[in-house]
Every structure is written in C-alpha cells, then in structure tokens.
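Researcher: I'd like a candidate sequence for this fold, 263 residues long. If you have to choose between options at a position, lean toward the conservative one.
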C-alpha cells in the first residue's frame, strides 16, 4: 500500500503522486536532486561510495526546502508540535517511506538499484558539462571526446546488466544473485578516487559531490568543475586535464565491473 500524503486535499493521494505533481522532471518521474553535504550521509556517499538518500518534505518550491526556524534555537519539539506538524502526520509519513526503503533493501534478493537511471544521470550530466563549459574547454584545448566514448560504453554495459538482472529475478542461485549485488556495489565504489578531489581529500566521488563553494549544493563531475572554477586566474590547465583523465579512468573501470563475468 502506498504511503498517503497527510496534507493533500484528497485523502487517497499518495506522497509519490504529490511529489510527482509538485516536482516533475522530463523523464516523467519525480525530480531527484543531487546530494550536497552537511548531513550524516556525507562520508558514505562522498568518501566510501555507498548510495545514499536525503529526504525532506517540502510544500511548494525547491526555493523553500526547509521550515523557517530550521537550525535556530527555536527549532524545538514544542515548535514542531505547536506550529509545524501538530499531529506529526507528516513526520509519520516520511518515517514510513524511510522504513519501506530500508525494508526493501534488506528483503529483496537483488538490490533495488536501477542502473538505467544511473547511466541516464551520467549522460545528462556529461551533456550539461559539454554545454556549460564548451568555450572554456576549447580555450584550454581540453577535449571530452574520450570521456564521451567511455560514458557510451558504460551505458551499454549498464543496459546489458539490467537485462541479466531481470532474467535472474526469480532464480534461487545464491552465487549468481551475490555476483549481481557485488557488481552493483563495486560499480559505485569505482567512482571513488583514493586521493580525493583537488584540495578536498575527504570528498572522493568523481561524479557527484557537494559544490566546492556551497556545501549544501551539489555538483556533477566536481573535480573537473572545481579545476575550472578560477581557471582565468590560475591558468592551471594541467589540473583540468588530470581531472578529466581521472573521470575517464573511473567510468571505464565502472563499466568493466558491470560486464558479464560468466562468458
């Protein structure tokens, strides 16, 4: 049974339905933002490569994501009970969502991890990088062609992996199920660069990380964009090329991890 939205006019409206209507995306699914920093998931997602989620309930806009007294001395149980969520119905609904995510991850034989969404995010972020930094990259004679080829290979391997995973969903072969799960977990960790991002050794994920100048924001290809941030002042194109090379290496290795191993 779907978790209901306690604040909807129609009592049968689910949280998913409300989320989709308030925050749609071009894919036809609800919008997912990237993870920033400033919370307990940070070392898991940014340092060791464990998929993480940050959930909150927002009423109207991405511009007003938290209640007005958030992180102030007035952010107390009394304020929540008196003004924000008197019957704690919203708290309950969000807790139910979190509990169901944990239960599904624990109970399903194959991890509920959709690599199709992952490769689409990777491709979309690459397109944004090419669009937003095209003239700047040309100025430094930096090409993303090799990265684009590796992303294409990764996408093909991700599609093939999802097909194998779908065929294995009903089998009782523990070894094969374990292999699929290990591949998915190892794939995420392939994007962890052991030496960290430039000037930020505690942030090691080369695809997604908090913005260098806004810890609550999220950046894609953070090593590359960090290196480009003050390029007019630093003129350190060597660092930019190094970061592009690092991402190419990580994407290539992640794609290899997803390749079939039973040939």
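Model: Candidate sequence:
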């Amino acid at each position: 049974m779907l978790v209901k939205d306690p604040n909807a006019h129609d009592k049968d409206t689910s949280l998913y339905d409300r989320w989709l209507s308030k925050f749609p995306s071009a894919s036809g699914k609800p919008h997912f933002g990237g993870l920033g920093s400033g919370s307990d998931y940070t070392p898991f997602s940014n340092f060791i490569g464990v998929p993480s989620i940050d959930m909150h309930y927002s009423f109207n806009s991405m511009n007003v994501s938290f209640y007005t007294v958030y992180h102030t001395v007035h952010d107390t149980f009394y304020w929540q009970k008196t003004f924000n969520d008197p019957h704690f119905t919203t708290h309950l609904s969000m807790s139910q969502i979190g509990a169901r995510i944990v239960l599904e991850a624990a109970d399903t034989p194959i991890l509920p991890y959709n690599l199709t969404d992952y490769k689409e995010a990777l491709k979309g972020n690459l397109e944004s990088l090419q669009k937003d930094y095209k003239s700047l990259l040309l100025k430094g004679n930096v090409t993303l062609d090799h990265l684009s080829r590796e992303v294409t290979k990764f996408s093909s391997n991700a599609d093939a992996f999802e097909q194998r995973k779908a065929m294995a969903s009903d089998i009782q072969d523990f070894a094969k199920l374990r292999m699929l799960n290990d591949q998915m977990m190892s794939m995420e960790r392939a994007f962890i660069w052991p030496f960290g991002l430039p000037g930020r050794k505690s942030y090691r994920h080369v695809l997604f990380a908090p913005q260098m100048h806004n810890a609550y924001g999220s950046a894609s290809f953070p090593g590359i964009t960090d290196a480009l941030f003050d390029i007019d002042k630093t003129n350190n194109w060597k660092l930019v090329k190094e970061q592009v090379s690092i991402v190419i290496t990580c994407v290539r290795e992640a794609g290899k991890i997803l390749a079939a191993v039973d040939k």
